[in-house]
Write a structure and sequence with these properties.
five-stranded mixed beta sheet; 15 strands; elongated; three-stranded antiparallel beta sheet
Length: 510
């Protein structure tokens, strides 16, 4: 909308139209809402702070692609955007191909290198310009010491003079190592590896985007008040996990230097829970692209509707609350279609085997099992993901010997006296939001799967010994132990295992 190519002349493709249907949905429109008093272009009403663009819009009897006022504010009147208008808010894109050569060249007046050269020329004092002119003239005279260069220069000038005789303007040409209209246009970005110069094409995609990001950051810090947006498409591409983490940190640093950054990502590394207002969930529902975004205020309101403590849940503390209590592996839930929230590693490692035995493919169905690291943390995660309209199911133990039932009982309006605490039972509520084992996960399996106890004794005597005392001392062996049992039982194809697993899995509404 505000890039180097004027939107009025942009060629739209079938894929740009709703459902690829340009006949029934012939109009594409979008709106830019600016901060107050930011945009003050020609013929623009600053009271609205809005610029609209539509294709096939009829204004004054003429149908065209045009900028215009929003509905209700001189809607039939066009807005004329000059290059200066568009330059007030420049968009710099690092796309998936990582082709940065356009931005770090003088290919366009809108490239970041061109913008930098113009700004440098503007701030340069006349005394510095005179000094540079002297130095460049010396460089030119040095070039002329090469006979072939001097000979070519003279012949070029003579040929040009003879060919331009019929034109009104009499011009001369000159071969120069610099542009006298802008001394900084002779600057080039040279990347080096050791002592050797390298072209951008020789750099990896990760290195290329880091180079351009560094340039943008330096520009923003040097010329404060310049406004542009940096867009990065899938910054995690071609980077190993540690490099992703480092890059995410640097993107945060760039945003703090005054550059607005927009990132599209499929990696949890680039999700900053404290910057939750910057989260925009983009998803499809019935073939239609939708978005979901929260402010601190709307998130707090949503959590309160999901039975969070009204006294403790406030706009000014909710982001800090989730930042300190949300772990990296839990952020993976933002990329799932459905989320199964469990107490800990025991269920996290063993449940996939039982889903597999029941013929349910977690990955194909976009299900992420989230380890909440304790029963008391299930409700917190449930409220976060439900606030973003994820389909969630909570799975927990109803054992009375442990703390943590209070928050869950409050979240789901459970009367604990009505809960079935029989260790042989698994109960699912009518609304399919949660399910619980009467005592705990292991007791339920021992009571309902024929051969489970025998498998416990056959896995490994050392592990069995650890399992017998795990509640007092060795809890770290528990996940590995139950996963081994689940794997052994899955190999046996126990009828009881399949039947009991189906009882649990089929009650989970995925």
């Amino acid at each position: 909308m505000l890039g180097e190519k004027h939107a009025s002349y942009f060629d739209f493709h079938d894929s740009d139209y709703f459902f690829r249907d340009s006949k029934d949905y012939p109009n594409i429109s979008f709106t830019a809402c600016f901060d107050e008093n930011f945009y003050l272009g020609n013929n623009y009403n600053p009271a609205t702070n809005v610029v609209c663009f539509s294709t096939n819009k009829t204004t004054n009897g003429k149908t065209e692609n045009t900028f215009h006022y929003p509905a209700g504010t001189n809607n039939e009147k066009k807005i004329f955007l000059s290059n200066d208008d568009k330059g007030k808010c420049q968009f710099i894109l690092i796309d998936a191909t990582r082709d940065i050569s356009r931005q770090l060249s003088y290919f366009s007046q809108y490239s970041i290198l061109s913008k930098m050269a113009r700004k440098m020329h503007e701030v340069m004092q006349q005394a510095v310009k005179n000094t540079l002119t002297e130095h460049f003239e010396h460089i030119k005279s040095t070039f002329e010491t090469v006979p072939e260069y001097k000979q070519f220069h003279e012949r070029l000038q003579k040929a040009f003079e003879s060919n331009i005789d019929g034109f009104e303007h009499k011009l001369e040409i000159d071969l120069s190592a610099y542009d006298p209209n802008n001394y900084f246009n002779s600057l080039r970005i040279i990347a080096k590896e050791g002592k050797n110069s390298r072209s951008f094409d020789e750099f990896g995609t990760g290195e290329q985007q880091i180079l351009l990001m560094s340039f943008v950051k330096a520009y923003a810090e040097t010329f404060k008040g310049e406004n542009f947006i940096l867009g990065i498409e899938e910054p995690e591409s071609h980077l190993h996990p540690i490099a992703q983490k480092w890059l995410a940190k640097n993107i945060s640093s760039i945003s703090k230097s005054g550059v607005q950054v927009v990132v599209t990502t499929h990696s949890p590394e680039f999700l900053d829970i404290e910057n939750l207002e910057g989260f925009v969930k983009v998803y499809k529902e019935d073939g239609i692209t939708k978005v979901k975004q929260h402010t601190a205020k709307t998130l707090a309101e949503s959590c309160i509707q999901l039975q969070a403590d009204q006294v403790k849940t406030k706009e000014d503390n909710i982001l800090q609350f989730y930042r300190t209590k949300t772990f990296y592996d839990q952020l993976r839930g933002f990329f799932a279609r459905k989320i199964l929230l469990v107490e800990g590693e025991t269920e996290l490692f063993a449940l996939p085997n039982y889903f597999h035995n029941s013929g349910y493919d977690l990955i194909r169905n976009g299900v992420e099992i989230i380890n909440c690291k304790g029963k008391a943390q299930i409700s917190r995660n449930f409220r976060l993901f439900k606030s973003y309209d994820y389909e969630c199911f909570c799975l927990f133990d109803a054992d009375k010997s442990k703390k943590g039932n209070k928050d869950i009982s409050g979240t789901f309006n459970i009367n604990e006296t009505d809960m079935n605490h029989d260790e042989r039972t698994f109960t699912v509520d009518q609304n399919k939001k949660y399910g619980y084992f009467g005592k705990d996960y292991e007791s339920y399996l021992r009571n309902n799967i024929d051969g489970y106890s025998a498998a416990e004794n056959n896995i490994d005597e050392d592990k069995v010994l650890k399992a017998k005392i795990l509640s007092e001392q060795i809890k770290d062996c528990k996940p590995e132990f139950v996963e081994s049992i689940a794997g052994a039982l899955s190999l046996e194809k126990s009828n009881d295992l399949i039947e009991v697993a189906a009882d649990v899995v089929e009650d989970i509404p995925f």
